[in-house]
Write a structure and sequence with these properties.
Shape of chain A: elongated
Number of domains of chain B: 2
CATH superfamily of the largest domain in chain A: P-loop containing nucleotide triphosphate hydrolases
Largest sheet of chain B: 4 strands, mixed
Order of helices and strands of chain A: EEEHEEHEHHHEHEHEEHEEEHEH
Strand content of chain A: 25-35%
Distance between the termini of chain B: 23 Å
Number of helices of chain B: 13
CATH architecture of the largest domain in chain A: 3-Layer(aba) Sandwich
Radius of gyration of chain A: 22 Å
Structural class of chain A: alpha/beta
Distance between the termini of chain A: 37 Å
Number of domains of chain A: 2
Oligomer: heterodimer
Structural class of chain B: mainly alpha
Number of strands of chain A: 14
Number of helices of chain A: 10
Order of helices and strands of chain B: HHEHEHEEHHHHHHHHH
Strand order of the largest sheet of chain B: 2-1-3-4
């Protein structure tokens, strides 16, 4: 039985339909990522599931039943944007939140796991961005949740802070907890998620493991060429391609044949790059747009 | 309701307030400044109700005894004489109501000027003209004085400032703060926990009442040291009235806090409620003699009933039974505000 099931979820704000009939099920113990650009409906979807906002239509089942009052006691949430009570230290805030639950985690373990030791006595609003995200993650785990929601957990963090946070999330996963994560960062999705649901315009347009999605939608390799390599008078390419900023990207499973075609058409190969396709390419293939657009 | 969740939030909110040195300090300083300032201005014998300009006089601050104006008028109490070098300068002040009456110093006849639309000018003219009459022309009249302890202006004024401070603290401390929490996502974060709206609102309300009563006690003691206030009634009765009043004002704050994410709108709404309440509840001046509808309208404000009860106990020695009607109205208002606030409350809208 799935831990969480979402059936035909719709959320409208007036005439705007933010979520358009989303359905998926989440087995216990996996990390599922909702991947999509800003405005795709990821946060709305996750907040409806969290019971923070009410759905317009649809059904959400937790452990096979509609959510009850105990749902909030059993899940942990890290919001994309949040604030905490001012003039409280990190430790006081952890204790305050711990007292709101009946089942709680060991604070010392939590502090060690999220590396909070160095700033426990500082006020909530006097800590750095990386420290803040680790602290908010600790707050989301203070009730030993079975299901953890992480909404864009690493947005705004520098690469080092991001990797530190990912490490902690990997540890949470290793503890057997189920994680629902939203992100527009394909690296994050690839690093943390067992399964990915790609969202665009309020719908899930593809779902599977990162490897499956790449294999299904972007078989072969990705060739990148600067736009300047092409002479406008050259005959057109025989394969479909995407223009991404100042370069074109071609996904092909016949690299030798494609390179031979480029050579035959006198294309300058000086700055050509070949790489394995990633989730960004999957999104590009499915929507014709980049995730970061 | 789980008491531990309520208590946790109650303690957290108190910590937040007590550690916010600026807000905390201001809550004490504000009433001290107002009471101290007004006590100095209106408490002594320097207080003057009317201002009379005299020209030509070399200095603005004049010694009345040196003025060449009718002696009876010069010796009238509660009139402050202000000197002007030229008539034009004095006319300008009279025109803009900066003085109530103007007289030219010198031998009779005494030329004088007043602004026809000034009520104070009208009264000063009456005083001036009667001071010109010989004493034997006065009709017989018998003077009587009120017996018992005199209520100083500051004694009347002090409860008004205390309750006004309570009103601002309750409305802004709950109404504004909760809207800010909603806007910046604190409420959303709390909604994600098992905390119920009832537990959260009770903690907010009781924390504010606790802080209000604490502030009140400190301000009272401080002001009493300076001005030696006299309380005719019982301090216990006063504490009961203050407690019920703070319940009612805080509950009104909860109604304002129940919805909305705009701090600007919340401020506008708070001002819209606080300013008429402050003026019509007789904090600053009595509305005795105002049109009936104004007096009736003033009764919709909890501050009116709170202040009435406090003044009855402080100045008239009333007991709890005497202020029963005011307490009943305050209790009814509290229940009504709580019901509306709870009904409208939203964590994130």
């Amino acid at each position: 039985m799935a831990l969480l099931e979402v059936k035909n979820l719709v959320k409208r704000y007036g005439r705007t339909e933010a979520v358009r009939g989303v359905s998926f099920a989440i087995p216990q113990g996996i990390c599922i990522g909702l991947l999509g650009p800003n405005g795709a409906g990821k946060t709305t979807t996750i907040e409806v599931i969290e019971d923070i906002i009410a759905p317009t239509e649809g059904e959400i089942l937790y452990k096979g039943r509609p959510r009850t009052d105990t749902f909030r006691a059993e899940v942990g949430i890290l919001f994309q944007q949040t604030a905490l009570l001012s003039f409280l230290t990190v430790h006081e805030t952890l204790v305050t939140f711990q007292k709101l639950y009946t089942k709680t985690a060991d604070l010392q373990e939590l502090i060690a796991m999220c590396h909070l030791q160095d700033f426990l006595s500082q006020y909530n609003d006097r800590i750095s961005g990386g420290q803040r995200q680790r602290f908010l993650l600790a707050l989301a785990l203070v009730n030993k949740p079975e299901l953890v929601f992480l909404d864009e957990p690493s947005t705004g963090l520098d690469p080092q802070a991001r990797r530190n946070l990912w490490e902690i999330v990997q540890n949470i996963k290793a503890g057997g907890r189920t994680i629902v994560l939203t992100t527009h960062n394909m690296e994050e999705a690839q690093a943390l998620c067992d399964e990915i649901a790609i969202m665009d315009y309020g719908r899930i347009i593809a779902r599977g493991s990162p490897a499956e999605l790449i294999k299904r939608h972007c078989g072969g390799v990705t060739v990148e060429l600067p736009m300047t390599s092409f002479n406008p008078s050259l005959p057109p390419l025989s394969v479909p391609f995407q223009v991404v900023q100042d370069r074109i990207e071609i996904i092909t499973d016949d690299l030798n044949g494609f390179v031979a075609e480029l050579v035959a058409k006198n294309v300058n190969l000086k700055n050509m790059a070949v790489r394995s396709p990633n989730l960004e390419d999957v999104f590009l293939t499915l929507t014709g747009r980049q995730l970061r657009e | 309701m789980q008491f531990i969740r309520f208590w946790t939030l109650f303690v957290a909110r108190n910590r937040e307030f007590l550690r916010d040195r600026a807000a905390f300090g201001w809550n004490f300083l504000f009433p001290f400044l107002i009471i101290g300032g007004f006590g100095l201005i209106f408490g002594g014998d320097r207080y003057a109700e009317y201002k009379v300009g005299v020209f030509p006089v070399e200095t603005e601050n004049v010694v009345p005894a040196t003025l060449d104006i009718p002696e009876q008028f010069r010796r009238t109490q509660y009139i402050q004489f202000v000197g002007f070098k030229t008539a034009d300068e004095a006319f300008d002040k009279l025109k803009h109501y900066r003085i109530d009456f103007l007289i030219k110093a010198g031998p009779p006849p005494y030329p004088y000027w007043l602004n026809n639309t000034s009520p104070k000018g009208y009264i000063v003219e009456k005083i001036f003209r009667s001071s010109l009459l010989p004493p034997d022309l006065s009709l017989p009249a018998q003077k009587n004085e009120i017996s018992g302890r005199q209520i100083r202006y500051v004694d009347w004024f002090f409860p008004g400032i205390l309750t006004m401070n309570m009103m601002f603290s309750a409305l802004w401390g709950v109404g504004y703060v909760v809207v800010r929490y909603r806007k910046n996502g604190v409420l959303k974060r709390l909604k994600a926990t098992p905390l119920t709206a009832f537990e959260y609102l009770s903690a907010q309300m009781l924390s504010r009442i606790f802080l209000l009563m604490f502030t009140l006690a400190v301000v009272w003691i401080g002001c009493d040291v300076i001005f030696s206030f006299h309380v005719e009634g019982s301090y216990v009765d006063l504490a009961v009235v203050f407690f019920v009043g703070s319940l009612s004002l805080t509950a009104l704050g909860l109604v304002i806090a129940s919805r909305g994410t705009s701090e600007e709108f919340a401020t506008g709404l708070l001002n819209f409620i606080a300013w008429p309440m402050m003026f019509l509840s007789e904090v600053w001046f009595s509305i005795e003699g105002a049109p009936h509808w104004v007096k009736s309208f003033a009764n919709i404000f909890p501050l009116t009933h709170l202040l009435k009860a406090v003044r009855k106990i402080m100045n008239d020695g009333a007991g709890l039974i005497d202020v029963g009607p005011e307490l009943a109205v305050l209790a009814l208002m509290t229940l009504t505000f709580l019901a509306i606030g709870a009904w409208l409350f939203s964590w994130n809208r």
